[in-house]
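The record is passed on directly below:
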Amino acid sequence: MTTEKIINEAWDNKEKINPQSSKEILDSISETFDLLDRGKIRVAEKKGDKWVTNQWIKKAIMLSFRTNPMDTLSGPYSSWYDKLHLLKGKTAGWGKEEHEKAGFRFVPNGQVRKGSFIGKGVVLMPCYVNSGVYIDEGTMMDTFSRAGSCCQIGKNCHISAGSGIGGVLEPAQALPTIIEDNCFIGAMSEVVEGVIVGEGSVLSMGMYIGQSTKIVNRNTGEVTYGKIPPYSVVVPGSLPDKNNSSAPSLYCAVIIKQVDEKTRSKTSVNDLLRE
């Protein structure tokens, strides 16, 4: 029986899953975390022009909270209490050899949980990366940025300081938040609820985009939801109430233009930081 089938059958009886469940189930959950950690599988992947969620992987992550007991971890200034398999981070116990093989730069005081994949050439400033996350090659996670559970971040992106890429762990069928290749996410922005930011897009500082956020193309007037088209430059804006001119305007995201050389020169990644 495949790991996927074992996980799906366990999910159908999730109320009965616990640390004393069968070795087959426990090993399948552990194997799923190991495969995520090595980038051999991922929670979502692009097939053609469409992103697809691998539901069984999200199910395995959620089941792990039932199969692992709570435990403590003591440090120099605090102690922590969490599920046993997540108390120690992805790189716990690594030496120089393991770090060189992984090929990403990891600045002190960052936190990367097990079950996440970090590609070569990635730079992790003091940031937070949750389980199920996939961060592709050459991307920078700047100071105090956050990658929520299961979000997918592409190649050569810059997730600026204080920004959050929201996690979507549950429900299992929901698509996680996706940042495609070569995107720039401005400081203190939040992209959540399974929104897709198309390849090469640039989001201004302080953007907040969820599934209910109106995305307005300033040139055409078109209003969409849930996806930023590729190579869009997006800034915060507001829309008035068409039926009541005295009512408060509502926040929206405004596509002001397509990415050009001027924009790219201001937001392109710096190779010097990735050597």
The mean pLDDT is 93. Residues 97-260 form a domain with the UDP N-Acetylglucosamine Acyltransferase; domain 1 fold (CATH 2.160.10.10). The first helix runs from residue 3 to 12. The chain has two domains: 3-68, 97-260.
